[in-house]
Every structure is written in C-alpha cells, then in structure tokens.
C-alpha cells in the first residue's frame, strides 16, 4: 500500500510539472508573435498620386447619393460637370484633392458628404509616335518612359531612317525639335538624347 501511495504522489507531482512546463512554453511562444505585430502593421507609404488631366475619365461617387454618382470625362478646359455644382476644376489635382474640393462644395446641400474619386482612364498621359513605324498613333505614357522605350513599342518599317529620328515637344507655347539618333543611342552613345517623355510629346521617324 505504501508503494501505491508513493506512486500516486509521484504521478501528481508529474502532472503539476507538466502543466507548469506547458504554461511556460505557451508564454515563450507568445512573445515572438506579440513582437511581430508592430512589424506587420507597418506599411510603406504610397508614391506620389496621379495628377488628373484633360481627357481623363473619372468615377465620382457620393455615398448614399446615387443622383450625384457618375462616370464622366474631364473636358479640354480641365473641368467636369456635376449635379448641384455645375463646373468643377479637376485638371491639375490629385483624386484626393478633387474629392476634398467636391466635398467642400457639397456641404451647402448635403450634411457630411463622403466623396470618392477614381481615375478609370488616364487618357491625358499619352504620347504619339508617327512616321515610318509599325504601330503609329497614340500610346499610354508609362512612368519614366524614354524615347527609346517608345520606339521599341512602335517598331520600325523597312524604310525608317533611324539616324534622323526626332522628338517634337511644346515648351512655353513654342514647339521645339530634339534630335534622336537611334543607332548611336542603342550603342550607348549620346545618352543625353534618350530623354524621358512628357504628355503630348510626338516622336517622328522619317
């Protein structure tokens, strides 16, 4: 009987120790998770927002106001037309800035208006490639796009004079002509000719 009692005591001690070990393990495993939470919450800030331009298409949504929610183009004068507000300047603003402008104007008619602006078509950021290219016409202006990149997308015809390519750009109301020698640039020469394009630029391949 004494042996049985001793065995019972040992078993009880073992259960208590096992419980303490399990609790200690749980405490240790929870520490890295708690420490990881701030790192998961941290997120990199977004880059500079898109600036709205003429010919862009915008979706204007006013929460719980279906009559004021619409998808519409930015006119050539840079404005959009909205119910209650008539003409609103959009070009030159980011979507967040335009939303804030509309929100402020709507306060005269609606209590606490909530406005969202989304650019559904970025038609203002276009460049043009013309002349002896396989795909002439307008193309979207991608971030940091250069003359060489635009030409690689357009392609050349067999008659293209790739040494005499030039860029037409309007600066201060005047059109300027910038030369681009494709053969030299692809060899690594004259890197200053491979400039970044701006909206409205036209690349001409004679």
Describe the structure using short key phrases.
single chain; 206 residues; alpha+beta; wza like fold; Outer membrane lipoprotein wza fold like; five-stranded mixed β-sheet; three-stranded antiparallel β-sheet; 10 strands; elongated; disordered N terminus
Short summary of the structure?
By secondary structure, the protein is an alpha+beta fold. Helices cover 32% and strands 26% of the residues. The strands form three sheets. The protein has a five-stranded mixed beta sheet, covered by helices on one side.
Overview of this protein structure:
With 206 residues, the protein is of the alpha+beta class. Among the domains are: 64 residues, wza like domain (wza like fold); 80 residues, Outer membrane lipoprotein wza domain like (Outer membrane lipoprotein wza fold like, Roll), CATH 3.10.560. The strands form three sheets. A five-stranded mixed beta sheet has the order 7-6-10-8-9, covered by helices on one side. A three-stranded antiparallel beta sheet has the order 2-1-5, with helices on one face. A two-stranded antiparallel sheet has the order 3-4. A hairpin with a 2-residue loop joins strand 8 and strand 9. The radius of gyration is 32 Å and the shape is elongated. The N terminus is likely disordered.
């Amino acid at each position: 009987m004494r042996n049985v009692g001793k065995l019972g005591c040992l078993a009880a001690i073992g259960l208590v120790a096992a419980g303490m070990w399990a609790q200690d393990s749980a405490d240790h495993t929870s520490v890295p998770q708690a420490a990881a939470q701030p790192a998961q919450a941290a997120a990199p800030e977004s880059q500079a927002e898109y600036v709205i331009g003429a010919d862009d298409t915008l979706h204007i949504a006013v929460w719980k106001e279906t009559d004021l929610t619409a998808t519409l183009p930015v006119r050539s004068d840079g404005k959009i037309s909205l119910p209650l507000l008539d003409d609103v300047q959009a070009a030159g603003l980011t979507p967040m800035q335009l939303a804030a402008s509309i929100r402020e104007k709507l306060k005269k008619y609606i209590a606490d208006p909530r406005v969202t602006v989304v650019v559904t078509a970025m038609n203002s950021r276009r460049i043009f490639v013309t002349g002896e290219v396989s795909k002439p016409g307008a193309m979207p202006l991608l971030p940091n796009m250069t003359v060489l990149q635009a030409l690689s997308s357009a392609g050349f015809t067999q008659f293209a004079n790739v040494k005499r390519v030039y860029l037409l750009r309007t600066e201060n109301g005047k059109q300027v002509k910038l030369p681009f020698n494709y053969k030299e640039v692809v060899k690594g020469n004259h890197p200053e000719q491979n400039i970044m394009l701006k909206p409205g630029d036209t690349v001409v391949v004679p």
